[in-house]
Design a protein that fits this description.
4-stranded mixed sheet; single chain; 30% helix; 2 domains; Rossmann fold
């Protein structure tokens, strides 16, 4: 028996197909927009006046990781929310959503080791210091780390694990040789390894990269700005340890400073090999000693606006360090273009 489909039913089916296609296209456009890099170069300044890229926020919720130290650089870990003043664009936030000291937060750490020819002479000592660092910082029950070597290409020598022996083996398996592609390595580590990392019970994670390099990039396909944007998108704090032993800071050292400061981290310049151990120790302690605050700022309605962040402790003897600010970028509306 032949069934005749009515014109009304045909139109209903066609309308449903068009609606589904439009929804899928909208989702694809939204995903593309969320992954796209901000237009133009967003710049703020480091302490010495040099420009650095700053993360652009598409949301009205701002998340800031910060560290508090005294005048002797000792970490202060037990302060309360009411012992700080938070300013966003020189105004107090409209609402504080969350505040916590994150001393015992689970860690996801990527160790990026420069294996280019430029660091060959001091490579073995760097391996030993890096292995010691992971043994000190990784708690096998809650934390995981990975090891990524890079020269002109990057190579994952050990994927995420809490097994300290495997991590040490991953470090010792690295062999120096080739050029230097720092930005490619940072971009890959943030996008492929840390962007979607989470715990089984969805606990908040501390995500960090420790980059051991001279910073003299000469092989990357992505730019420094793109690497920083990806780190910000993944919520990664970057710590950099310079392997330049000349006692004179050069362009590579500046690159490392930009990378660290733009993500709320810190750069270290150990001019003696044995100072590497102290740098790793400082990073480990800082990762256990930071605070996090989430808030809704006031009057976020101007695309492209730079909003400085300032956090101060009531005790004026304490120094607070965090990212310096962010640029606002409105989400595109239908029919508009970037």
């Amino acid at each position: 028996m032949m069934t005749v489909t009515s014109p009304v039913r045909i139109w209903v089916v066609l309308a449903a197909l068009v609606a589904a296609s439009s929804m899928a296209l909208g989702q694809q456009t939204s995903t593309t927009a969320s992954n796209a890099l901000p237009p133009g170069t967003a710049l703020a300044s480091t302490d010495d006046g040099h420009p650095i890229p700053v993360f652009r926020m598409n949301s009205d919720e701002v998340n800031v990781i910060f560290t508090v130290t005294d005048k002797h650089h000792h970490f202060i870990k037990n302060l309360r929310q009411d012992q700080f003043t938070f300013l966003d664009n020189n105004m107090p936030p409209r609402q504080i959503l969350n505040f916590e000291a994150e001393t015992n937060m689970p860690l996801r750490v990527g160790l990026l080791i420069d294996a280019s020819n430029s660091i060959r002479d001091r490579f073995r000592f760097e391996q030993q210091a890096a292995a010691q660092f992971l043994r000190q910082i990784v708690r096998p029950q809650t934390d995981k780390a990975f090891v990524l070597a890079f020269d002109d290409v990057d190579k994952l020598t050990q994927d995420f694990t809490g097994n300290l022996d495997k991590l040490t083996h991953g470090i010792n398996a690295i062999r120096p040789g080739g050029g230097t592609a720092v930005w490619d390595a940072v971009y890959y580590a943030c996008k492929a390894k840390l962007l979607h990392e989470h715990t089984a019970d969805n606990k908040t994670l501390r995500k960090a990269l420790v980059v051991v390099s001279d910073g003299a990039d000469n092989q990357s396909r992505v730019s420094r700005r793109k690497a920083i944007d990806m780190a910000q998108h993944a919520g990664v704090i970057i710590y950099a340890i310079s392997t330049n032993l000349s006692n004179i800071q050069d362009r590579g050292d500046y690159n490392l400073k930009v990378l660290a400061e733009a993500t709320g981290g810190r750069a270290f310049y150990p001019y003696k090999l044995h100072d590497l151990t102290n740098a790793f120790r400082s990073i480990g302690e800082e990762l256990r000693s930071q605070y996090a605050v989430s808030y809704k700022p006031q009057q976020v309605d101007t695309a492209g606006e730079y909003r400085p962040i300032k956090i101060t402790a009531d005790n004026k003897k304490y120094r607070v360090r965090s990212k310096k600010g962010y640029y606002v970028q409105k989400e595109l509306q239908p029919g508009t273009s970037d």
